[in-house]
Amino acid sequence: MLKVEPASSYPPEEGRYLRGNDYSPVAVAVILVYDQEKAPPDIENLVRVGLESGAALSGTIQTENIGIEKLIGNIVANPNIRYLVIFGPESPGHQTGDALLMLLENGVDERKRIIGAKALTPYLFNLPMEFIARFRRQVRLINLLDEGDPDLLRRAVWSCYQEEPTSLQNCTLFDPGAYPEGPLSGRLTWRVTRPQSEPKDEAERRQRERLRDLIARAKRATEKKRERERP
Question: Does 17-173 carry CATH code 3.40.50?
Answer without folding.
Answer: yes
